[in-house]
Amino acid sequence: MRTTSRRPVLRTLAVGIAAAALAVGCGSSKSSGSAGSATTTASTGGKTLRVGYSAWPGWFPLAVAEKEGLFKKAGVNVKLTYFADYTSSLDALVAKQLDVNAQTLNDTMFAVASGSPQRIIVTGDNSTGNDQVICDKSITTVAQLKGKTIAAELGVVDQFLLLQGLAKAGMTQSDINFQGVKTDAAAAAFAGGQFDCVAVFAPFTVQALKRPGSHTLFSSADFPGVIPDHYVTTADVVKNNSPELQKFVNAWYLTLAWMKANPAAANKIMAAKAGLSESDYASLAKGTTLFDAAKASHAFADRPGDSTSLPEMARRINPFLVSSGLTKKEAPLAGLLDPTFTDAYLAAHPDSSTVTSTTSS
Fold this sequence. Notes:
Blueprint: H1 13-25, E1 38-42, E2 48-53, H2 61-67, H3 70-73, E3 77-82, H4 86-94, E4 100-104, H5 105-113, E5 118-127, E6 131-135, E7 149-152, H6 157-168, E8 177-180, H7 183-191, E9 197-201, H8 204-208, E10 215-219, E11 228-234, H9 235-240, H10 242-261, H11 263-274, H12 278-285, E12 288-290, H13 293-300, H14 310-323, H15 340-348
Parallel strand pairs: 2-3, 2-4, 7-8, 7-9
Antiparallel strand pairs: 1-3, 4-11, 5-11, 5-12, 6-9, 6-10
Helix pairs in contact: 2-10, 2-11, 5-14, 10-11, 10-15, 11-12, 13-15
């Protein structure tokens, strides 16, 4: 995987929204792909959806859909763009250079708080171990983090995960020496002997764990539902291209079904896209749990106090965005979550069963 950051600090996005609107109005010719991105099109006739994604195990099924012709089978035209830089994909959606993008709940809510009317139409997966707080061998309990130097990228979901672990132990960020460091640099520095702990996501977890004696203190597996990932569009695209969005959602669930029936072939495709060996990719797969339509519909439902409920997690993330300085105000949540496409698929496929397997099965 060659991305530099899956969950970046987005302090400039509010300015970017205004700039993007101006660029679009002036007929900007900026490509939706960042440097190092690759664009392909699956043609079926009709409206083409421009879909972006980047390096995360929960999003590599799009490479499967492309290679196996599953977009075409679902009757949807897709121009698929892989971004080596996740930040650029977020900017592209804001700039209306994408119709759909793969991104986290935190980043989507940041964009909404900054004025972009984004809508989550698919909840694709939960991180169930691929986000980790990794420490040196001397630290074996969360209580021992007090006064220790811990690095994470400021404002990203791995800092959010760190705060969850501290809170569970009755601690706050003020109890540690927090260092805001970009994810790739933080992992490399920790592996080289700097910092007592680091909070990073896969595949940078692999790099961090190269430090002798290092180990995972806790991970997203210990906090179910805290780090969900999605396919996100905008209010205008929902209004003007609802039939094509439905076909895209259908293609997503069709892809998950194909992967379940062809696990070895799916793993091979995703490993190639990730730039990893098949065995290395398989080792990461358990840390991401994909949702079929039934489980996704359940996640969309509001269950106060339940971290696996997206409305509940959105309410929890809002204060974090403000306290971390990412936004000045909380994101309005009305309209953020749109389960109608998943529910329509589920109604048409009532025998869909909940996916409990990982990206490799």
